[in-house]
Automatic annotation (TrEMBL):
It comes from the Bacteria. Keywords: Signal. Residues 1-21 form the signal peptide. InterPro entries: Galactose-bd-like_sf, Ig-like_fold, PKD/Chitinase_dom, PKD_dom_sf. The keyword Phosphoprotein does not apply. It comes from Cellulophaga fucicola. CDD domains: PKD (cd00146). Residues 37-115, 120-201 form the PKD/Chitinase domain. The keyword Acetylation does not apply. This is PKD/Chitinase domain-containing protein. The lineage of its organism: Bacteria, Pseudomonadati, Bacteroidota, Flavobacteriia, Flavobacteriales.
């Protein structure tokens, strides 16, 4: 019989959304403790004394029901142990973890107290599949409660101990053969031991690809070797300048279909562009490459070789490498030009390994690049989430945030998050500005509350963006840079996917100062954000206006301010009530609308009888119109056939039907106050139609 068993009594995870009433107190929203277990050790002296150390995530206290009918323990603080004396037998111990808000999670753990020495010891020793030179040991035995492992790398080492059935991992400094000893322990003085000569191996090639390079405009990158961009044609990745005679070699290594360069026993290796080919990288800013080594090469020297006017010059830059993982190298081209190198005709690259001719490197994504150019102006500026219900949400389709959306109480609770800004620079740079605090979720080590930003999602990323206006897509490039929520990206949600180096979002403008953004974070999961431009200047004409319902608000005369030829008096205003309720809507997005309702004043030239009637096209409000307000000249121009202010007939050429129907009309506008505007148009020489508008 195995002596260590787990039975989960309670492991309920609660999803607390901002739409619930208790969001005004974030403590109530903290989930119950998780991953509840206990580390158990026993005295090997036939006394039956067992030490129990409760463990969990999110616990502030514990209790232990010893399972033998004795009283439940007092509160136990995290990190503390409790000793209990058992008679020989099998016991179901209940460990209860208590959170800050008194929510509880319990687990049952079976322990068997036996004064027999362990029997039927089964040991598994394996090299870790992902971590170089790491060995994983698991031991199980009847009557055993714990075991310890001597890994045999140093003399006099302290063994590592854990509960029977659990796994112990250890990373060696060097690969090789080691004597590993396992000691299984019960409550008896006698132990059961096992020894094995085990060969520890090193991982000598990458198990995963380098990060995918970000999206870039073609004019912003010159690629030598990368699947993300178009490479310079005809490049030779092993010209063999004599290195083959030193035992150095080359191959193209494929990892699940992703190819990369592999240089073996690297002394120095070259890359040569096609004969007669060179690239001018003087307008680029960086050389990028990703390098993986098992650790037998500690640094890589990268040289650029130029061939200006037939004279060959070169300059090296050395970069340290991290063993067992991809090292991303970003070399400013100024590191070369500061050495006097001209970079207008680069035709070769050279790599030198340190130590010389002893190790292997894998290299991918070799390209030159610069900050994005030709940045569309629309996104340039500082944006933040709209401080309103529904500006943050998630659902099964764009526009559907039924799964979760942040309501008004949630917005108040997350004030530290709603003041975060997203800055799109005119130079293609992108910055997350989070301030001293933001909303830190559990996967970041937070407690779903305001807290100090956590790297790399703390605004420290040196990020850029590209905006494809036609496709309605913006790509944020830079590990840790994001819009909306850091966890939501194109692969899924962190921490369940790899940390991305770029994220592409769909973006659409509601108006010039409002954008709707979403990202499909895994199939059918759409995180959605409404962003507003910070510090946007709104035109003073923005809003809904109508003619003032007073005598003289409509008139015509030989000069501005003179309506002696005709003006609509009080009786006229009453008679034309169907006209005085017409509105002129100036949108913040630059749109303009005539809203006439079911009736307006229809004059004879329109086929009416100078009376109320159904609006007549194109002067019926159906025009897809825009406007431009020029504060310097005091003019507002209405663009769109059939769109107008005041009277449809009056335009810059004269009066309809005596002139052609215009596609735009420019009016002179002055503000009497913020909500009152005087407007006129000279409809032919010396004919000034004049209107007094009020904001509603």
């Amino acid at each position: 019989m195995k002596i260590f068993k787990y039975t989960l009594l309670l492991a309920t995870l609660l999803f607390i959304s901002c739409s619930e009433d208790d969001n005004t107190d974030y403590v109530n929203g903290i989930a119950a403790p998780t991953n509840v277990t206990a580390k158990v050790s026993i005295s090997q002296d036939n006394t039956g004394v067992v030490n129990i150390t409760p463990l969990a995530e999110g616990a502030t206290n514990y209790t232990v029901d010893f399972g033998d009918g004795s009283a439940i323990s007092d509160l136990i603080k995290p990190g503390q142990s409790i000793a209990h004396t058992y008679a020989e037998g099998s016991y179901d111990v209940i460990v209860t973890a208590i959170g800050l808000n008194d929510k509880k999670t319990a687990t049952t753990q079976n322990i068997e107290v036996s004064f027999n020495s362990p029997e039927n010891l089964v040991v598994t020793i394996e090299n870790d599949a992902a971590v170089s030179k790491q060995v994983n040991v698991t031991a199980d035995a009847d009557f055993a409660l714990a075991y310890k492992v001597y890994f045999g790398e140093t003399e006099g080492e302290e063994p590592i101990e854990t509960t029977i059935g659990e796994t112990i991992s250890y990373t060696y400094q060097e690969a090789g053969t080691y004597t590993i000893k396992i000691v299984a322990m019960s409550a008896a003085i006698a132990t059961t031991d096992y020894e094995e000569e085990f060969v520890v191996t090193a991982i000598v090639q990458p198990l995963n690809s380098a990060a995918t390079p970000p999206s870039r405009n073609p004019e912003d990158v010159i690629s030598i070797y990368s699947a993300a961009y178009e490479d310079v044609a005809g490049t030779n990745y092993f010209p063999d300048w004599g290195q083959g005679g030193q035992g150095s070699g080359w191959s193209e290594f494929s990892l699940n279909g992703d190819t990369m360069l592999q240089y073996i026993n690297l002394s120095y290796q070259g890359i040569a562009l096609a004969d007669g080919t060179s690239v001018d990288v003087s307008q680029m800013e960086y050389l990028h490459l990703d390098v993986w080594t098992a650790g037998d090469i500690t640094s890589l020297e990268t040289s650029l070789i130029n061939n200006a006017s037939g004279t060959t010059t070169e300059a090296p830059v050395s970069s340290s490498l991290t063993a067992g993982e991809w090292t991303t190298i970003e070399i400013p081209l100024s590191d070369y030009t500061d050495q006097g190198l001209t970079v207008s005709e680069i035709f070769q690259l050279k790599f030198v390994g340190e130590p010389w001719a002893t190790g292997t490197v894998f290299i991918d994504n070799i390209y030159f690049y610069k900050a994005p150019s030709n940045v569309p102006e629309g996104l340039v500026g500082t944006w933040k989430l709209a401080q309103e219900a529904g500006s943050l949400g998630v659902g099964p389709n764009p526009g559907d945030i039924s799964w979760f959306n942040c309501d008004a109480d949630c917005v108040d609770l997350r004030a530290c998050y709603y003041d975060d800004t997203y800055i799109f620079g005119s130079d293609g740079s992108f910055t997350n500005n989070l301030g001293a605090e933001s909303w830190i979720e559990g996967w970041q080590g937070g407690s779903d509350s305001c807290g100090v930003p956590v790297a790399p999602y703390d605004g420290s990323a040196a990020a850029t963006y590209t905006y494809n206006e036609a496709a309605g897509e913006v790509t944020i490039n830079g590990t840790g840079a994001y819009i909306g929520l850091a966890k939501a990206n194109n692969q899924g949600e962190l921490p369940n996917v790899a940390v991305p180096s770029s994220i592409t979002y769909k973006v659409s403008f509601t108006d010039i100062n409002t954008i709707e953004v979403y990202v499909e974070a895994g199939s059918g999961v759409f995180w959605q954000y409404k962003l507003v431009r910070e510090g946007a200047v709104t035109s003073p004409v923005t809003g809904t206006w109508k003619l003032a319902e007073e005598a003289g608000a409509l008139g015509v005369g030989p000069n501005p301010g003179d309506i002696s030829w005709f003006n609509c008096d009080a009786d006229c205003v009453d008679l034309r009530a169907c006209y005085y309720d017409d509105t002129y809507v100036f949108g913040a997005d630059g749109s303009f609308t005539n809203n006439l309702g079911a009736e307006s004043w229809i004059e004879g030239w329109q086929g009416g009888s100078d009376s109320c009637g159904a609006p007549v096209a194109p002067y019926d409000g159906s025009a897809a119109a825009t406007y431009v307000y020029d504060a310097a000249t005091g003019t507002v121009t209405i663009n769109g056939t059939g769109a107008y202010i005041g009277l449809a007939k009056a335009n810059n050429q004269g009066e309809l039907p005596n002139v052609a129907v215009p596609s735009s009309i420019t009016y002179t506008a002055t503000f009497i106050d913020a909500n009152t505007m005087s407007v006129y148009v000279e409809a032919g020489s010396g004919v000034f139609w004049q209107y007094k508008l009020v904001r509603i």
